[in-house]
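::Encoded backbone::
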Amino acid sequence: MNLKVKLRKALLDARTICEQAEKEGRDFTADERKKVQGYMAEAAELKTQIKQADDDEALKAALLDFEVPDAAAGKPPAGTSGAKGTLGNRFVESPEFKDWLRRIAPSGQVPDSMKGINSPPVLFKSLKTLVTGDSATSAGAFVETDYTGIYEPLGRYPRNVMGLVAQRVTGSDLVQFVRQTTKVQEAAPVAEANVTTYAAGTGEVEGKKPEGAIAFEQVTEAVKTIAVWVPATKRALSDAAQIRGIIDQELQDDLAEEMEDQLLNGAGTGENFTGILETAGIQTQAWDTDLLTTIRKARTAISTTGRSRPSAIVVHPNDAETLDLLTDDSGRFYFGGPAQGGVGTVWRVPVVESEAIDEGTGLMGDFRKAVLWNREQASIQVSDSHSDFFIRNMVAILAEMRAAFGVIRPTAFCEIEMESGT
């Protein structure tokens, strides 16, 4: 049977077994694994034999293309000219060489005084066939790929909200804090008493001081876990050391992106944090006249009702662009235009961009009034103790972090409608 036919049959037989296992959603049986390994070993041997046969044919063809002089007389073989004999003969009889010699030495003799002469190149088909850069069996076999090691990830948007909130450390799975719900507002001027026993008579002044009222609530937040893992083979981690660092960084970045979303939008159900936008008691500012007017009213609400000074306004990148492009009636940018440097602000409040917040919604607030308690900083673990990973030389690379989050003063935050009708 032809070697190439045998190779095709071995590969088809191996693929049939693989397709059957894939169709049934299972791994190979011991017998199937042995057969597949046998087919692949046979295919590798056949490929080697085919390559050797092809190389032999190429070498024969190249040798036959060279003519050699008659062994006895030192002349070209019968029926051939000098140009078809040795390489030297073919060179001096070539049209390129003859034309060059005719130009520099019309008499046919090169003067001894002539220096620095260079003959033109003469190409021979047989040599070009033997040594080429585009053949894996010729000069191309020495060409090595230049692996630069450059790796360009898909990229992630910067996570900015975590840098705004206050961060503490906890050693417990539950975090409690006290939140004031009512403040003392009963203070009033009091006249001096003029009687020892007040009977509400004419001219009597009791002089009694008003009693104040204050109330608190105890808030408990549970430590939640954010985690993600990927499978990898031990061989991949050993043979490509760079891949471990890439995987670790990707996992940690994914944790940070999820944390950013939880701090803003966590629903508070199940294992979700209660994000700032989902916290009861935060203020809201409806659209009013235009974007700048609406934002300014939110700032006022935080100052008067929340008794706080806003440290940032978090907006979607598209809304940040809208702010930057606002112009007055003369077409001048309100915020300095493209040449303006430094941190962007609106009404003296820094603008922070985040893709975690919905377009059309802004969140202004004193972000020091939101606290992230770290129970366990982001960590990476590797283990083969998952499913049948041990016997398959695979590992699970796990990244996780544990933390609790709470808003200690909800009125210090205000959700803003950044668009009319939102």
